[in-house]
Design a protein that fits this description.
By secondary structure, the protein is an alpha+beta fold. The protein has ten helices and 27 strands.
C-alpha cells in the first residue's frame, strides 16, 4: 500500500513539474551552465527585458485586463522574482506564518484563492501552490484590500499565466512580421542570461514557442526567421494584468515590449501607396547631414551621415498608425545598409535641420547621383567629412558645414564666415574676392 501511495505521489510530482517546465522556453543553441547552489536569501538572477502595451485590435479583443479588485479564484500565475524580490520576500507560508524566500518559489505556479482578514486586522491575498499543494499568502503592506486594489496595485513576482495560455492558443505556428529592430536570444539554458540581436524591420517570422517572460511582460514569444532559421524572442505585455506598471511607464525604451510595437500579424508592405513605392530602386543623395541607423559590431547604432552620401532605396516599409515610412537604404560606395524613418507628407512634421523639416523626404534627399553635382571627387570627399579647404565655393562650404553663425567683411573684398563649434571655439572660413575659400583658422 505504501508503495502504491509513493508511486502515485511521484507521478503527481512529475506531472506538476512538466506543467511548470512547459512555461519555461528558450531560443535555439542556448548553453547549459554548470549547476551551482545559491543561498535563496542572496540569490540574484538576470531579468529578461520587459514587454509593452498594444492597440485595440488583436490584443484589445483577446486579452482582457483584470484589476486585482476583479480577480476570480482559480486565476493562475507563475513566480518570476526580480533582483529586488530576492532580497525582500513576497510570500508567507500559511501554515507557519513564516516568510518564504522568493528564490525557493521561483517558477512555482500559484493559484489565486481570494483575500481574507486576520484577527489582528491584516489583509491577505491567498494562493495555493500548484507545485507543492501548500497554501501561501501575500500580506498587504498597509490599509485594506479595497484600498490596495483600487490603487492599481498587484502582487510582486507574479506573471499572469492566462495571457501566456491565450497567446499560445492564438499565435503558435502563426506567421508574423517584425516591427522593430532589437530582439533577444537566450544565453543560458538554466538561467536568465540573454543578449540583444538586431533584426531588419518587416522580417517574416514564425512563432515556434511561447512561455513566461517577466512579471511586467509575461508573454515570451520565440520566433524563427523563415529565411535564415535563426530564433530570437521578445517578452510582451498583453492584458497588463498584475504587470505592475503605470501607463506612463510603457513608453520610451519600454515601448518596444508592447506586442503591437514588436510584431505585426500581416506585412505592412502592401499599405505603402504607389506614389511612394515608385521610389524603390531609385538612386538618391543626402542634401543635408542626418542621423541614420546602421549595423556595426553586431548591433544597430545611430550614425551621422554627411551631405552628398549616395544611396539606392532598397525597400520601403510603413510605420503603422503614422504618416511615416522606413526607408531601407544601401550606400552605393560601401554597400553598407542603413534605415531612416521619413515622411512624404509636407505637413505636421516635427524636427528641424537648419530651419527645415528634418523628417520630410524632400528635405533630406535629392533624386539622382550626388557625385554628379558640381563638385570634384576630392571636394566631395571633404564635404562628406564635414571639412573645409581652400578652393571650395560658398555652396560647397554650405554643404560641408552649413550656414555660418555670423559673417564679417573687409575693404579689400575679402570676407569671413564664422562658425561656433561645440567645443566653444570659433571656426573662421576666409573667402577671397572670387568667392572661393582662401584659408581657415580656429580660435
Amino acid at each position: 500500500m505504501k508503495r502504491m501511495i509513493l508511486t502515485a505521489g511521484l507521478a503527481l510530482a512529475m506531472l506538476t513539474a512538466m506543467a511548470q517546465d512547459s512555461y519555461i522556453v528558450k531560443t535555439k543553441n542556448v548553453k547549459k551552465l554548470p549547476v551551482t547552489v545559491v543561498n535563496a536569501a542572496t540569490e540574484v538572477t538576470e531579468e529578461t527585458p520587459s514587454a509593452e502595451e498594444e492597440p485595440k485590435d488583436f490584443v484589445g479583443k483577446n486579452f482582457k485586463y483584470r484589476s486585482l479588485c476583479d480577480w476570480q479564484e482559480g486565476m493562475r500565475f507563475m513566480v518570476i522574482p526580480e533582483k529586488y524580490d530576492l532580497l525582500v520576500n513576497t510570500f508567507c507560508d500559511a501554515g507557519t506564518g513564516k516568510e518564504v524566500g522568493s528564490g525557493k518559489l521561483r517558477h512555482k505556479i500559484m493559484i489565486y484563492k481570494g483575500h481574507s482578514i486576520t484577527a489582528d486586522n491584516h489583509h491577505r491575498i491567498n494562493f495555493v501552490c500548484q507545485d507543492d499543494n501548500k497554501s501561501y499568502y501575500y500580506q498587504i503592506p498597509n490599509g485594506s484590500f479595497d484600498d490596495y486594489c483600487y490603487g492599481k496595485m498587484g502582487v510582486p513576482t507574479l506573471a499572469y499565466l492566462d495571457d501566456v495560455d491565450k497567446a499560445r492558443e492564438l499565435l503558435l505556428g502563426q506567421s508574423l512580421f517584425t516591427k522593430q529592430k532589437t530582439f533577444f536570444i537566450d544565453t543560458q539554458a538554466d538561467g536568465d542570461g540573454f543578449e540583444e540581436v538586431t533584426v531588419p524591420k518587416q522580417t517574416e517570422v514564425k512563432v515556434t514557442a511561447i512561455g513566461v517572460g517577466t512579471r511586467a511582460y509575461p508573454v515570451k514569444i520565440i520566433v524563427e526567421d523563415v529565411k535564415t532559421g535563426k530564433e530570437f524572442y521578445m517578452n510582451c505585455v498583453m492584458s497588463r494584468t498584475n504587470n505592475g506598471m503605470r501607463d506612463d511607464e510603457l513608453i520610451m525604451d519600454n515601448a518596444k515590449y508592447v506586442f503591437a510595437n514588436s510584431f505585426d500579424l500581416i506585412s505592412g508592405t502592401e499599405e505603402v501607396s504607389s506614389d511612394i513605392t515608385k521610389y524603390i530602386n531609385k538612386i538618391v543623395y543626402t542634401k543635408v547631414a542626418t542621423g541614420m541607423i546602421t549595423k556595426g559590431a553586431g548591433k544597430e547604432r545611430e550614425v551621422q551621415v554627411p551631405r552628398l552620401t549616395e544611396f539606392k532605396i532598397d525597400a520601403i516599409y510603413p510605420i503603422p498608425n503614422s504618416q511615416y515610412v522606413t526607408l531601407q537604404l544601401v550606400e552605393t560606395e560601401s554597400r553598407r545598409q542603413y534605415t531612416k524613418d521619413v515622411t512624404f507628407e509636407h505637413v505636421s512634421i516635427v524636427g528641424d535641420i537648419d530651419g527645415q523639416q528634418e523628417a520630410y523626404f524632400g528635405t533630406l534627399f535629392g533624386i539622382g547621383e550626388g557625385k554628379l553635382r558640381n563638385t570634384t571627387t576630392a571636394t566631395r570627399a571633404l564635404i562628406r567629412a564635414g571639412r573645409v579647404a581652400p578652393g571650395m565655393t560658398e555652396d560647397e562650404v554650405l554643404l560641408s558645414v552649413g550656414e555660418p553663425n555670423s559673417t564679417a567683411s573687409s575693404s579689400n573684398g575679402r570676407y569671413d564666415w564664422i562658425y561656433k563649434r561645440s567645443n566653444g571655439k570659433l571656426l573662421i572660413v576666409q573667402f577671397g574676392k572670387t568667392g572661393k575659400v582662401i584659408g581657415t583658422k580656429v580660435q
